[in-house]
Amino acid sequence: MNVRVICDFDGTIAEKDMIATIMREFVPDEAEPIIQAVYRGEKTVRAGVEEMFQLLPSARFEEIAAFARRNTVVRPGFQEFIHSCGQLGWKVAIVSGGFDFFVHPVIHSLSTPVDIYCNQLDLSGPRCRVKWGVLCDDACTGDCGLCKPSVMRQLADGQTRFIVVGDGVTDFKAALEADYVFARARLLDLVRDQALPASPFDTFYDIVDVIEDGGSNLYAHL
Ligand SMILES: [Zn+2]
């Protein structure tokens, strides 16, 4: 059995949402209405994130990247989770709506290889411009920015089972296409509303407990 784990970054691997944390530090007054509009669904994630990074001068990038690295707190048990997946022969893909400058430093410290899908910044102009990793394919109308279900469709081969790990609204479309979900925060409410096969988690140790228990509910769905 081929199993692929699709794991979110912000609010999942990292305890906080780094894009919002950066914006609230560097451009709080201008960014807050955009953050709220995205949260309320009045603006798409793609449009909101592009607008917010346009607020930041490219010349401040090193300062922003250093701030992000200093303020990243990794959820407990992440290394053990990646190790357990590797032992089972499961491939892990970190699929993040965030950016390489704060995702890569966390992932590169791991001893087990993982795939990374995230975004980059174009710093060639006076202001930061978003270069999206994987935009929505024809099957998605969400204007997601980095589109998680589109990544899953690229990886699907008809035999692969998908496990999604996440916390937020951008993980929900991926969760709908998954065989099993590990969810916290807002995603947990959404998957429970839809009665999707799922387990809650607080730390990655909670997930390790489930995947190392061959009799767990997870294995009824793979
Ligand atoms: Zn999409």
From TrEMBL:
GO terms for cellular component: cytoplasm. Its EC number is 3.1.3.-. Keywords: Hydrolase. It comes from the Bacteria. InterPro entries: HAD-like_SerB (IPR050582), HAD-like_sf (IPR036412), HAD_hydro_PyrdxlP_Pase-like (IPR006384), HAD_sf (IPR023214). It is an enzyme of class 3 (hydrolase). Transmembrane segments: none annotated. One of its GO terms (biological process) is L-serine biosynthetic process. GO terms for molecular function: L-phosphoserine phosphatase activity; magnesium ion binding. PANTHER family: PHOSPHOSERINE PHOSPHATASE, POLYOL PHOSPHATE PHOSPHATASE PYP1. Belongs to the HAD-like hydrolase superfamily. SerB family. This is MtnX-like HAD-IB family phosphatase. It comes from Alicyclobacillus acidoterrestris (strain ATCC 49025 / DSM 3922 / CIP 106132 / NCIMB 13137 / GD3B).
